[in-house]
Structures are given as structure tokens and as C-alpha cells.
Amino acid sequence: MSPTLALQGGCLRAARRAPGLAHLLAPASAATMTARIAPPRTADLPTIPRSFATSAASRYKQPGVPGSDLPIPSVSGKIPEMPPYPYGPRQVYHQSNKGLYGSSRIQFGNHVSEKHSVKARRTWRPNVHRKRLWSESLGVFVTTRVTTRVLRTIDKVGGLDEYLLGRKPQRVKDLGPWGWRLRWRIMQTPAVQERLNRERVALGLPPKDYDAFRRDAEQPLPDGTPAGETLMVETDKMLADESEFQLTADEGEAAEAAKDDFMKEEKPAR
């Protein structure tokens, strides 16, 4: 008897003595073997979106502001009442739109070897850190990405609020879209509004009542025309429907007069 037949006979005798092990010794069918060997189908695998960015998305989890229902804005959420950033989103180095990067950008150049003067292309990236900066007007820590150069500027001017409230055009340009959102948020606090009123009084101007200004902006005009956000909603709806705007009599006459005077030759004065 061959060794293979002897081994099979021993396995069969063991299966008769222990009936519970018979299913382990039974030969597997072709379908069972295929199910064990076949890889999972592509449709059964979870679909993971591929990201082409070199860094993770900036999702700052900001704390709530004590005594206020107005939260700290996100880096990309829409805020209808906030004026648009005058310089628009940055078209180069998009990562700087979601942090306080100042004027820092990726710089390109060459790495030159000392011995053979061989040039190799290289880049210099801004030194960016994730920090929690204290805001005096909000009374909380604001989490943001910030470069070391902007950190030195914040320390020099006296804090985050002083940096955001800078009035020079270059400072407003260095803020970027995210700094503009933080600037608008701290200007809604009573502390900053009181400070702005003191500056108006020092210039000889009357103080500004921001609450009354918001209420007046929402009040309809004397002829019943809606104002404020309601007017903007109706205007956007008319633009979407391609409706015609009806001008009043005075506006129509002024438009016709301006049209008649367009490119009209004027006689020189003698």
C-alpha cells in the first residue's frame, strides 16, 4: 500500500470516530475554492476621494465668543453681511487664503554646489505654524495658521487685535481673506466699536450708533421700497429672472438727458 492511501485511510477512520470533524476532512468543491481564492470586487471596496493638495485642509475649530451669539467665521463660509475683501482671493499659493501668511509666498531658486558650480532647482517655503492667538476683544483664543514673520509683527504691534485693525493699505493686503474675516468679526464687538467711537469724537465727528444703523438699514423707505438685505434679495431675484428694472419718472428723465448730452460738442467760451 502506498503512503498516500495509508494517510487517507487514517483520516477516514478518524472522521468515523469523531463525526464533528467530518466537515473539515470533506473535499472542498470548486465553488468553495473559487470563493476562497477570488479577490473582492472593485464595487465592494469603499471609494476614497483622492486629494491633490500637498497639505491637509484648514478646518479651524473655534470656540464660542462669551456673551455673543455671533460665532467666529470659518475660513470659507459665506457671510452675507460681511463686505467683500477688496483685493479678492489670492491666485498664487492658495494655502495663504486660509491663514495669516502676510506677503509670504513660495520662492524658487537654484542650489549651487561649491566645487563644480552645478545648479539644481529648489524651493523655499514659508515657515508656517498652527497657533492659538489671544484676542482681547473676543475674549478667546483664535486658532489659525500663521507664519513666523507675522508672529513677530503681532508681537511688535501689541497683539492680534492691533494687527487686524491696521489701516495702511499694505496691512489690509497682508491680512488676506482669512484675516479680513477676523477683522470684520472683532469690529462687531462692543470693545472695538467703543474704540472707533472715541476716535470719531477725537476727529470732531459724532459717535456712531451701530445698533441704530442696523435697524435703519432694514427699515423700508418712505415710499414703501424695501431696504437692506430684503432689497438685495429682491434685486438678485430680478437679475436671475432677467426682469426689467422700472425707473421712476425723475430717474428716466435724467437718463434721457444724459443720453442726449453724450458726445455733444460744446462751443469754447470766448
Automatic annotation (TrEMBL):
Ribonucleoprotein keyword on record: yes
Name of a matching Pfam family: Ribosomal_L28
Database matches in InterPro entries: Ribosomal_bL28, Ribosomal_bL28/bL31-like_sf, Ribosomal_bL28_sf
Chain positions covered by the region annotation Disordered: 250-270
Biased composition (Basic and acidic residues): 256-270
SUPFAM superfamilies listed in its UniProt record: L28p-like
Keywords noted in UniProt: Ribonucleoprotein, Ribosomal protein
Domain of life: Eukaryota
Protein family per UniProt: Belongs to the bacterial ribosomal protein bL28 family.
Name of this protein: 50S ribosomal protein L24
Biological source species: Remersonia thermophila
